[in-house]
Write a structure and sequence with these properties.
- By secondary structure, the protein is α+β, with helices and mostly antiparallel strands.
- The chain has four domains: about 1-90, 3-Layer(aba) Sandwich (Rossmann fold), CATH 3.40.50.20; about 120-180, Dna Ligase, domain 1 (2-Layer Sandwich); about 185-310, D-amino Acid Aminotransferase, Chain A, domain 1 (2-Layer Sandwich); about 320-405, Glycinamide Ribonucleotide Synthetase, Chain A, domain 4 (Alpha-Beta Complex), CATH 3.90.600.10.
- Helices cover about 30% and strands about 25% of the residues.
- The longest helix is centred in the middle third of the chain and has 19 residues, at about 235-255.
Length: about 425
């Protein structure tokens, strides 16, 4: 197939690596891609990938058989809509269904209508309105911006003043949700969805906070591991039955069928599993470890979802190996980031058995050097026979990479190794 992957980040790099590894020998293009994707031998043309008209024109010009939308921004902007209207297979929901991620208030309404287990939530539009709601819910306080916020719109704090400040910061941009605090282990579980049916991938857990021990502010994700040895044997079946399928069927019933990747952000509490949030695309960095273990051809499921044919496929198969990703971030992340510094040791890192790199924010410098261009720079992905081996490989490789002021967590997957 001729496949276009849209997006510029590490998630797209992981998708591209999975697709080009298939025996079918697909022609894969990633727009706009990044320097790491280009170094993988994949074309990375410039493209305004959040502009529906620009994307539609590019796809018509190049004649792609399948378009895979990576990040949330183009989905919420409606990039999938004109492509689907033209009969082009697209893996990614249209603008209306992408509100499942684009609006937390919309997602809560869908969950309530579908009977999906989740925490209590109240919408507020101002600091004055929020005070009474925070007092009603009690500490710890959970405050979420309604719209997209690049992983930084959620605050969990014991500090009431900080919670009110978060409301003040985000309320001018739209509604804010105050939610019930849910205590437990978090799980990311992805589902292929074709508008009516779903098929699950393997669960993963990510690390959102910047520092060891889950300290410091939220980030886009500092690491992840898969599978999850501590979940119940019937966990995936339970979430399929109680969360993913009811959600997709509710959206279908409302005339907004969800076609693409349904990301269920879950928490395992003492009283059962609850949904924290939905996303409308592959999660980053969980995708990198989930796809590292995928034994079935990814393209088969992407195309079947886009064409409404998941009922005809078996559930995807996964390696028994363990996978770990450790993310390297620039100095200052997730606040004011220092960029433009040289990265060293990338080739040496990939010499560690079972290791590959996924690039998020890199560029080629003089004479082939590598430069960090953003907050989360790259991820070190390692597979091993067990978590101890995968984790040892990931950190051995990460130790070979140099970046002045670089930060990474040292406790990724420590709880399972």
């Amino acid at each position: 197939m001729k496949i276009l992957v849209l997006g510029p980040g590490a998630r797209e790099h992981a998708l591209v690596l999975s697709l080009i590894s298939e025996e079918a020998g697909h022609e894969v293009v990633c727009a706009p891609g990044n320097a790491g994707i280009a170094a993988s031998g994949v074309e990375t043309p410039e493209l305004a990938y959040t502009d529906p008209a620009a994307v539609a024109a590019f796809v018509r010009e190049r004649g792609f058989d399948l378009v895979v939308v990576g990040p949330e921004a183009p989905l919420v902007a409606g990039v999938a809509d004109p492509l689907r209207a033209a009969g082009i297979p697209v893996f990614g929901p249209d603008r209306a269904a992408a509100q499942l991620e684009g609006s937390k208030a919309f997602a809560k309404r869908i969950m309530d209508a579908a009977g999906v287990p989740t925490g209590r939530a109240t919408r507020v539009a101002s600091v004055a309105e929020a005070g009474a709601v925070l007092d009603d819910f009690g500490a710890p306080y959970v405050v979420k911006a309604d719209g997209l916020a690049a992983g930084k719109g959620v605050l969990v704090t014991e500090d009431r003043d900080a919670a009110l400040a978060h409301v003040a910061e985000w309320a001018p941009h739209g509604e804010v949700l105050v939610e019930e605090f849910l205590d437990g282990q978090e799980v990311s579980l992805f589902f292929f969805a074709d508008g009516h049916d779903v098929l699950p991938l393997s669960p993963a857990q990510d690390y959102k906070r910047i520092f060891d021990g889950d300290a410091g502010p939220n980030t886009g994700g500092m690491g992840a591991y898969s599978p999850l040895p501590w979940v119940a044997d019937d966990f995936v079946e339970e979430i399929t039955r109680t969360v993913a399928l009811p959600t997709v069927r509710q959206l279908e019933a409302e005339g907004t069928p969800f076609v693409g990747l349904l990301y269920c952000g879950l928490i395992v509490t003492a009283t059962g599993v609850r949904v924290i949030e939905f996303n409308a695309r592959f999660g980053d960095p969980e995708t990198q470890v989930v796809l590292a273990r995928l034994a079935s051809p990814l393209s088969r499921y992407l195309l079947a979802a886009a064409q409404g044919g998941l009922a005809e496929l078996p559930a995807p198969e996964f390696s028994a190996d363990s996978a770990v990703i450790v993310v390297l971030a620039s100095e200052g992340y997730p606040g004011a980031v220092t960029t433009g510094r040289e990265l060293t040791g990338l080739d040496a890192a990939t010499e560690v058995p079972g290791v590959h790199l996924v690039h998020a924010a890199t560029a080629r410098g003089a004479e082939g050097s590598w430069i960090a261009t953003g907050g989360r720079v790259l991820g070190v992905v390692a597979r091993g026979a067990d978590f101890a081996e995968a984790r040892e490989r990931a950190y051995a490789a990460a130790d070979r990479i140099g970046l002045e002021g670089g930060q990474r967590r040292s406790d990724i997957a420590a709880r399972v190794a």
